[in-house]
Amino acid sequence: MSSMAGSEATAYLSVEVAYARPERQEIVAVQVPAGTTVAGAIDASGIRERFPEIDLGAQPVGIYGHVVELTTRVRDRDRIEIYRPLQADPKAQRRERARRQRRRR
Fold first, then answer.
1. Cα–Cα–Cα angle for 69, 23, 41, nearest 5°?
2. Distinct helix (H) and strand (E) counts, the chain
3. Where would a tag sit more exposed on the chain, N or C end, judged by fewer CB atoms within 10 A?
């Protein structure tokens, strides 16, 4: 009779950490232990060493386009995205485009 007790191996998850600048995008695949948080996966990826401008205190992060907290636990095959600050407010840009189009008529 075999027993699973004592033979449990640490489960690892495969996740990706993504960050993009206008001129360059990087996606880093990393294996992390089950129970790892978004912040832990970002640290394990080493992406902040490659992009020193990343400020997790100021920049939102997400998983597949949905904003999450740094304390969120990752799941297998998650893609963690680090978002850059917007250069301009999208609503203000739309209003400005509409104003310019009205002037052309």
1. 30
2. 3, 5
3. N
Those residues with Cβ within 8 angstroms of residue 12's Cβ, 6 or more apart along the chain or in another chain? 31, 32, 33, 34
Q: What's phi and psi for 17, nearest 5 deg?
A: -120, 125
Angle at 41 between CA 16 and CA 77, to 5 degrees: 35
Residue 28 is encoded by which pair of tokens? Answer: 């880093």
| pLDDT tens track for 6-55 | 445 689 999 999 999 989 999 999 999 999 999 999 999 999 999 999 99
Name residues whose C-beta falls within 8 Å of residue 70's C-beta, 6 or more positions apart in sequence.
37, 38, 39, 42, 56, 61
